[in-house]
TrEMBL record:
Localization: Membrane
Major location (coarse): membrane
Gene Ontology MF annotations: ABC-type transporter activity; ATP binding; ATP hydrolysis activity
GO CC terms of this entry: membrane
InterPro entries the record matches: AAA+_ATPase, ABC2_TM, ABC_transporter-like_ATP-bd, ABC_transporter-like_CS, ABCG_dom, P-loop_NTPase, Plant_ABCG
Species this protein is from: Ascobolus immersus RN42
Alphabetical UniProt keywords: ATP-binding, Hydrolase, Membrane, Nucleotide-binding, Transmembrane, Transmembrane helix, Transport
Domain of life where this protein originates: Eukaryota
Protein name, entry field: P-loop containing nucleoside triphosphate hydrolase protein
Residues of the ABC transporter domain: 32-280
Length: 631
């Protein structure tokens, strides 16, 4: 490389590093304010309107870290939701304004410049810290930003959050320990910063952490807010004095009303001025929360009066007047367009999700490993129970039973997919709320990542059971058997996906999936033949029962071309099925099919089509649910 080319490359590098650092810096948002925020719900008991928030005002400037505090039930979460423009509370009516630079901005614009870190970390346990932040960058940043710049940004964030020594450590799964709770919180915040938010909301970022870890998390937040001029609002429960002092401002709520909103450094003087000085050697955060906490008071009327007087004192305070004036000062700076925070496109996001799921799939034994082992165990059990069945009429029923058991249990055991899917679903709901990607990318990547594993399971299961049970010994029949199992698993997993997005709760999803499988087994044509199944179950369920097509397909596979010996002790010959080959003391498999009401025509193409249709239909329904019910 010539010296001039080298120096151009170096200056490009310096330039891109500079851009990477600069992109984090907020220059567009000069203020974030909320005016007269009031939230009302209908009280379940009295059926009267109930105020959750009552005319709450506030303002945050660049570089400021704001603590949102108050006793339990004071409205912190509700306010944080309103500020982050999420659903405040179920069936709530929200009034008031949330302003960026003095203006109301569209929800799309708001999502672009803000991010919300939820209380529970939506991290994927099997990824390393570096991978987690790197995937967050790939999901957040446009493909137009060069890879080197993205890597630089990831590296900077890892350093800024003091995570360099843990960069290659996994987050942690139930079976493999990873980083500490405080480090997890830092990774969560760091990941959210990859989308370059200017305003960051955090719901109790220190929950579950001891005071040292809480201090550490808030210190990093303060540093990043200062360095990049970010506006940070975090709800927090009783911080230690040192942690409390890291915040620049405090908004203290009680029963949905403002008790104090101003600099943390003025807390002592303000409460002294209204007659409640913070005693020496006392944690001020603890003192002021106790001051307005009436939950454990024995004299409800007097404590309500006391709280009312503190609320009134705030309204009458000079600080409240200053705040009102600040809210009236409009700031007319435009947010402008930011190429660097444009999101990547659909294909790029789906590929990133696939890549992330792929790592999880082979690294996290709970994702697929356990299921592969479980299906292998089931295959060995089945193959050794139905061991080397013979071409004899005594073995016809065991053959049919083996077919039913294999197809039904394959589907039934898809319940084991529920926990893994729910974990992905929870990650998705959080990432979607932050505007990273949508339902289509999520469902598509989940579907695609399952294909090789479901194929592997079907292949291993077929190899073990097909030969042990001695199903029809031809290569074509073997591959058809494998195909039916694969289609069975595809449909069964699609059902799990639909049920889990409808009822995203572990126990409920598990119960409903198990119930649905019980239903499919009952109406699938084995336990009660189609010929005598009553019309309700037949017409309402049996046609959409994917297991029934798998059962038919496997029955056809076994019986369409094989013949079975009638009673061995001849003469006289006794055939247990009505057989056209009775003269030869044989039963054609087609006689068995006839008894089950199968037509003589080869309908495999139709059954395959229906199975694929059911799979597609279930996935589409899940997509509709995500687009409508679970928005
Ligand atoms: N949909 C609703 N209907 C009726 N009351 C509600 C509803 N949602 C929330 N609340 C009530 O509103 C009040 C404020 O709730 P919120 O969750 O905002 O409090 P919080 O300060 O975050 O509490 P915590 O610190 O315990 O999380 C509580 O008393 C809660 O019971």
């Amino acid at each position: 490389m010539s010296s001039s080319t080298r120096s151009t490359a170096i200056s490009d590098d310096v330039e891109s590093n500079y851009k990477a650092l600069k992109a984090l810096k907020n220059t567009e948002v000069t203020s974030f304010a909320w005016k007269d925020v009031t939230v009302t719900v209908k009280d379940n008991e009295t059926k009267q309107p109930k105020l959750l928030l009552d005319g709450v005002d506030g303002v945050v400037r660049p570089g400021e870290l704001v603590a949102l505090m108050g006793p339990s039930g004071s409205g912190k979460t509700t306010l944080l939701n309103v500020l982050a423009r999420r659903t405040a509370a179920a069936n709530a009516k929200v009034d008031g304004d949330v302003l960026i630079n003095g203006k109301t901005v569209s929800l799309q614009e708001f999502r672009r410049i803000s991010s919300y870190v939820e209380q529970d970390d939506a991290l994927i346990g099997s990824l390393t810290v570096q991978e987690t932040i790197s995937f967050a960058a790939q999901l957040s940043l446009s493909r137009r930003i060069p890879k080197s710049q993205k890597q630089q940004r990831v590296s900077d964030i890892i350093d800024s959050f003091g995570l360099r020594n843990q960069a290659n450590t996994i987050i942690g799964t139930p079976v493999k320990k990873g980083i500490s709770g405080g480090q997890k919180r830092r990774v969560s915040v760091a990941s959210q910063l990859m989308s370059n938010p200017r305003v960051l909301f955090l719901d109790e970022p220190t929950s579950g952490l001891d005071s040292a870890a809480s201090f550490e998390v808030i210190s990093f937040l303060k540093k990043i807010a200062r360095e990049n001029n970010l506006l940070v609002i975090a709800s927090i429960h009783q911080p230690s004095t040192t942690t409390f002092n890291l915040f620049d401002k405090l908004l203290l709520l009680s029963s949905g009303k403002t008790i104090y909103h101003g600099p943390v450094s003025d807390v002592n003087s303000y409460f002294s001025s209204i007659g409640f000085p913070v005693p020496g050697y006392t944690n001020p955060a603890e003192f002021i929360i106790d001051l307005v906490n009436t939950d454990f008071s024995e004299d409800a009327a007097s404590s309500e009066k006391h709280k009312g007087s503190i609320t009134e004192a705030w309204k009458a305070s000079p600080m409240a007047t200053v705040l009102a004036n600040q809210l009236n000062e409009t700031d007319d700076m435009d947010l402008g367009a930011h190429e660097d925070i444009a999101r990547p496109g659909f294909f790029s996001q789906t590929l990133t999700l696939l890549n992330r799921l792929w790592i999880k799939s082979y690294r996290d034994v709970l994702a697929y490993g356990v299921r592969v082992a479980m299906y292998m165990g089931l295959a060995i059990m089945m193959g050794t129970v139905w061991l080397r069945l013979k071409e004899h009429q005594d073995y016809i029923q065991p053959f049919i039973n083996a077919i039913f058991f294999g197809s039904a249990f394959m589907s039934f055991m898809a319940v084991a997919y529920v926990p893994a899917f729910l974990e992905d679903f929870h990650t998705f709901t959080k990432e979607r709320s932050n505007g990273l990607y949508g339902a289509t990318s999520f469902l598509l990547s989940n579907f695609l990542i399952g294909l090789p594993y479901l194929f592997l399971i079907s292949t291993l299961f077929s190899v073990v059971t097909y030969f042990l049970a001695n199903f029809r010994p031809t290569a074509t029949a073997f591959f058809f058997y494998l195909m039916w199992l694969f289609l069975d698993l595809l449909a069964a997993e699609s059902l799990v996906v639909l049920i889990s997005v409808l009822l995203p709760n572990f126990v409920l999803s598990l119960a409903v999936t198990a119930f649905a499988n019980g239903l499919w087994m009952s109406v699938g044509g084995f336990l009660v033949s189609d010929k005598i199944l009553n019309v309700f179950w037949k017409y309402v369920f049996s046609y959409i029962d994917y297991q029934s097509y798998v059962f038919k397909g496997m029955m056809y596979n076994e019986f369409s071309e094989r013949t079975y010996q009638c009673s061995a002790a001849a003469p006289p010959c006794f055939c247990s099925y009505d057989s056209p080959l009775a003269d030869e003391c044989k039963i054609p498999g087609t006689a068995v099919l006839q008894q089950y009401g199968f037509s003589q025509r080869d309908k495999r193409g139709q059954w395959i089509g229906i199975l694929l249709g059911i799979t597609l239909g279930l996935r589409l329904l899940a997509w509709v649910v995500l687009k409508t019910v679970r928005r």
